[in-house]
Design the sequence.
């Protein structure tokens, strides 16, 4: 259940019987012909579909992340690492203070990975809490489903092209783009990254059949739900 569909009394009543919650992490950055909010849309949707049958609240996705590489693309917004970690600290500490003790972070953006490394520091200060960091798109079962469908899958390619990340009246080509040299790209400033990438797709087809995407999505939802049900350390 989405927190936006509750009031404070509903959350208070929930905390009398359970201490789990989901915090999706997204980003606002270029995704070629897809929505700039792709990471946020996917992280929140997989969280809601996984948590809804269990009655676990899902907080709104954090819509900004760490993405300095793409700042030459208009609409991309990047936070400094120090800002991001401070923001995560405030969010997790605030939820802990209210009584949440088991928190599933569903991350939708690879650039947010400094938060995963920092998480141990927060847990050391909150030993009664349990937090799982779940990169939903490359978790073992979901990534296996992606690879079984098409091993050439990357940022802004078909693997992020769902009906809910597409934009109306924006067409995509059928061209299978060669994989960009990531080692080279990581050495470049934003303007040169844009010149190298063009539309922003790292490589692969821009779109695959919806039936294939639905199968991958079902696996992602199941894998996320399994963490909510049984992924907690004693």
Sequence:
């Amino acid at each position: 259940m989405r927190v936006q569909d509750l009031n404070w009394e509903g959350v208070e009543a929930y905390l009398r019987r359970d201490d789990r919650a989901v915090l999706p992490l997204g980003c606002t950055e270029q995704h070629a012909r897809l929505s700039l909010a792709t990471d946020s849309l996917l992280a929140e949707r997989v969280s809601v579909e996984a948590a809804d049958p269990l009655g676990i609240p899902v907080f709104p996705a954090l819509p900004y992340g760490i993405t300095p590489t793409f700042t030459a693309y208009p609409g991309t917004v990047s936070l400094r690492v120090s800002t991001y970690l401070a923001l995560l600290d405030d969010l997790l500490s605030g939820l802990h203070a209210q009584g949440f003790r088991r928190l599933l972070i569903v991350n939708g953006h690879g650039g947010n990975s400094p938060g995963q490394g920092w998480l141990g520091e927060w847990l050391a200060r909150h030993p009664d809490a349990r937090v799982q960091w779940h990169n939903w798109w490359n978790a073992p079962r979901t990534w296996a489903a992606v690879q079984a469908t098409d091993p050439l899958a990357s940022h802004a390619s078909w693997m992020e092209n769902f009906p809910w990340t597409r934009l109306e009246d924006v067409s995509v080509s059928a061209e299978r783009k060669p994989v960009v040299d990531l080692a080279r790209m990581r050495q470049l400033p934003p303007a040169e990254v844009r010149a190298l990438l063009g539309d922003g797709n790292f490589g692969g087809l821009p779109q695959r059949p919806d039936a294939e995407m639905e199968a991958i999505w079902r696996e992602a939802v199941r894998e996320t739900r399994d963490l909510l049900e049984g992924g907690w350390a004693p």
The first strand starts at residue 20 and ends at 25. The helical segments are 8-15, 38-51, 81-98, 114-125, 140-149, 182-185, 190-197, 210-230. The chain has a mean pLDDT of 97.
